[in-house]
Batch of 4 targets.
Target 1
Amino acid sequence: FSTSQGLETASPVLLVDGYNVCGYWAKLKKHFMNGRLNIARQRLIDELITFSMLREVKVVVVFDALMSGQPTHKENFAGIDVVFTGDACADAWIEKEVVALRDDGCPKVWFVTSDHHQQHAANGAGAFVWSSKALVSEIKASHKEVEQMLREHRSSSMQGKLLKHNLDSEVVEALKDLRDKL
């Protein structure tokens, strides 16, 4: 039950301890703490889908099924794997997955959690470690980049698109005359 099957070795992998991030990120934490785990999970998944595309990384988010009440299974949402671990805690699954990915020749594996014990174990297995805070900062930075790209696109695409720039000067004058008469 490994995500490494069919992995393009050129693509770095970001393994995310889902509930750890949900418990940290303010906009998810309110749902997480109030028992609305499905809302917290879906909002995190949505953020990770965008992040995965922008940063060109394979994202695998892992949730303890013990908390979600789901059997062990894997789903895929827009290119990111969502794993529910029913028989093992997410921590144990992630540790095994880091080793499997490294053995399969994955160039870089990042592991996201703020659990110090898990950070140490994942690092020992060969993963780079990010805290939940670091991931949230990266996601927010990627949002800003997208906004900047959209602003630049809008301003450059407006140039030359205004109707008056594409009309003959005589037509523009005729339209002005018509406007003045109305």
Target 2
Amino acid sequence: MLPVAFAILLSGTVKAQSSVAELVAQLRLAPTEVDRFRTLNDSDFLFDFNNPPSSVGVTNGLAGHTVAATSENFAAVVGNGVSMTIGFLGPCGMNTPHTHPRATEINFSLNTTLRGGVLVENGARFAEIDIAPGSATVFPQGAIHFEMNPSCEPAMFVAAFNGEDPGVNQVAQRFFGLPPDIVGATLGGLGVEEVAGLEALIPDNVAYGAQDCLQRCGI
């Protein structure tokens, strides 16, 4: 049995997601932008990142959380080719290495200097970028990248995308979702039990970052 409060929250999330999905379907069938505007209410054009309408698009970890506004939970982006994620990183919090398979990202740091990194593809050099407050960097579509807050204060970033459904693929977490024998062979011949032991150590996103930051901030 689910706890009553959780069951109510889950039910509300499912209903909200179903409602948005139905609205998105209508918008995709609309022949023009004018018709799309007729389908939407004024309130449909607003998305509150501080108080999102449901748990859809929200990713929680020990060191922070991210809130994404995409066609999955914000119907107004449909047909406009844009979406956005706000990251709320605690001290030493890291948005772990990931990719966006369907969109390029421009990432803007609000209040701290973030440690960013990007690896575009095989053969490309790794680029590490300090994203100072008020500055932005670009992560090309499909590139592996991360953002970490190396400070002992909370940090925020804004990630904008040139697609309404950019997708996200956390590298380490999804890698261990492959068949254990394939994972083991890729890692140099580890056994299934060794692979299972490693998988248990992979934290959910948003995770804590580098050890020197944890020591410096007393975490």
Target 3
Amino acid sequence: NSEEELPECAPWAVCSKVDRYDAPWVERQCRCRGSNQCSKTLDASDGHTLTDKTRQYKLCEPIKKLPKCRFFRDITWTLRSSPDNATEQIVHCHCPKTSVAYLIQRQMYETRHGVGYQYSFACSPQSRLRCQRKEPCRLFTVRKRLEVDEVNTNTLCQCPHNHHCPRHHTHAGVIAGKSYTDEAIRTYSGYCI
């Protein structure tokens, strides 16, 4: 509950992540500098929020000052995870409307405490491809955490007329896939119904 335990945010760092996949949950990342406060609202139109799929990323700075990313060229954000499991997400530009962020690069780096990773994300237009028969329309990656499931979704194609793609990994039309027990991750594939 105390912000004193949180590190101070770097410029353009995500101070809080809000996951709205199921019941909303918030993960604080850092505390804003000076008198700035990290937005505590679930409203994405607060002027400090970037939205990607079911997640909201809250920033200390107003997002209207961020440039717009170019598809496939600009890095929208970098996510750095250190050996002690601390993470820092720095935003460089915002994806255009109706686009999604995707992982473009993973780099390993060494510290005196061990190995860390930096993940870079770029923007892509939403897929307009029609799903073929027996082809999944959405992939779900579910990571079990202490109190919540952290779920990433990726839409692969658009369902044909009068069909829809499942929005949740527990809905009808979803089949469980591979399980990675060492990382508590399970994959699921959703099919048009």
Target 4
Amino acid sequence: SLTDAPVTLEILQKWVPRVSHYFDKDHYTYVGHQIVIQESIEHFGAVVWPGALALSQYLESNQEQFNLKDKKVLEIGAGTGLVSIVACILGAYVTATDLPEVLENLSHNISRNTQNMNVHKPEVRKLVWGEGLNEDFPVSTYHYDFILATDVVYHHAALDPLLATMVYFCKPGTVLLWANKFRFSTDYEFLEKVCNVFNVTILAEFPESNVKLLKATVREN
């Protein structure tokens, strides 16, 4: 229930300042690996948001509670790919998804950061929330242990399709981990809808950055 006191955390400075000729690359260190992320200023999805840092940090420091090794993981709205890369380093079979215009940068970051590692090869796929789910990810074939989502809720019109997508992929046994910076009343309204559909626990709060990390599972009838 939401009444359990969540852990209060701060987002640690995992960003490694570099003297670099490129203003568009950020260097992070998670799970003992340096990760280089190229951002793109043209798209919302191509910037590292605080929710991604919060979830990456949480997965790194709670590996016993959420063991991703050999688990099937789907990230929706993967953006720059940071969370998918961290999940991959932690041993998951990762499918990173986002809108078509974000995929090139996403693929670049994921392949660049995982190609020389002994990990399951991650997959990058197009996923427009609420569209073509049955065709592209038929239930008979695709079952995920974890759904990861970070900063997928902000001022946009696609909240209903987003919720429908979460519902579609969350089967019995699936754990949805969603980290988000809460900025607007619409964010809290969306949280309320999520709580109406799923069993929801707040795992952690990062007060400085207004990020909440939530765990949701499907209600068993």
